[in-house]
Amino acid sequence: MSDQPADPATEAFVAHRNLLFTVAYEILGSAADAEDVLQETWLRWVKVDLDQVRDQRAYLIRITTRQSLNRLRTLQRRKEAYVGPWLPEPLLTAPDAAEDLELAESVSMAMMLVLETLSPTERAVFVLREAFEVGYDEIAAAVDKSPAAVRQIAHRARQHVDARRPRQVVSRSEGRAVLEAFQRAVEASDLQALMDVLAPDVVAVSDGGGLKLTALQPIFGVEKVIRMFVGSMQKIGGTLTTEPTVINGSPALLFSFDGELDGVVALRIEDNHVTGIYYVRNPEKLSRLESETSLTLH
Predict the structure, then answer these.
(1) What is the pLDDT of residues 143-161, one digit of tens each?
(2) CB under 8 Å to 173, separation ≥6 — which residues?
(3) Is the pLDDT reported for residue 134 higher than 90?
């Protein structure tokens, strides 16, 4: 029996699927919700008359953005009831994702947290314009605003993000070197080595979602962060092992105790020091660590 060729709607959707997932994930910060958005996008896409579609990529991005904004309102209500800090769902990405510096920066845990400080419309506009280089007219159609309003929103969002984003893009080699120094210090419980690799104003954010023990507020300052870190390791108990990995296009560590995966630690690195520690322990957010997620800006 010969394989039936895919219909044009399916072919177009499959060709752009990784792109659409990346758009939804950057707007939502949740892989599970991004997958739901893709389902909703598909259901709408198959009803479209393709003869009337001038640019399939742009049209699919428009549907995905609208569905993401609808989903974001539901997600915000869940975040308001969330126990402790909320961190984006970490994604295991291919090692070569770290080589695409533009992609690595746009989906890094640090950048995703900055995007959390934008309003839903600002976030969608910023993501489409800055990460995916979508034109103002297309963005306007996606968010139901005039092109002039979108330009203003994009300018305001860019200023907001620029004031909070990491000051520099870290090279892959620098990121790996700092991660290795942090890993050695943690595994050896070497307080001086931790002091050396952490920036004085480091911040630690841990997400247990009420299911795992974590600090209920971000911890600021190197001494408090070290005290929290050492105390947490003692409370969890067992033998700690760490494994380097690539999460959201950046170097990270998987933490296991007595061979059981406990969580993932992503780092924000600037000037050869760790300025942010993001520890996701919520077991409901660890399902995307078993297989690589393909992300793309194109």
Answers:
(1) 999 999 999 999 999 999 9
(2) none
(3) yes
Q: Is there a contact between 88 and 30 (Cβ–Cβ < 8 Å)?
A: yes
List 269's β-bridge partners, or say none: 274
- What whole-number percentage of the chain has pLDDT above 70? 97
Rounded distance between C-alpha atoms, residue 28 and residue 26, angstroms: 6
Q: Is residue 24 a contact partner of residue 68, using CB atoms and an 8 Å limit?
A: yes
C-alpha to C-alpha distance for 158 and 125, rounded to whole angstroms: 10
Let me know: does 279 contact 205? Beta carbons within 8 Å. Answer: yes
Q: pLDDT tens digits, residue range 11-65?
A: 999 999 999 999 999 999 999 999 999 999 999 999 998 888 889 999 999 999 9
Alpha-carbon distances of 281 from 12, 55, 160, 255, 290, rounded to whole Å: 37, 41, 29, 9, 15
**Beta carbons of 44 and 3 less than 8 angstroms apart:** no
N- to C-terminal Cα separation, the chain? 35
Q: Which of 18, 16, 7 is nearest to 50 (CA)?
A: 7
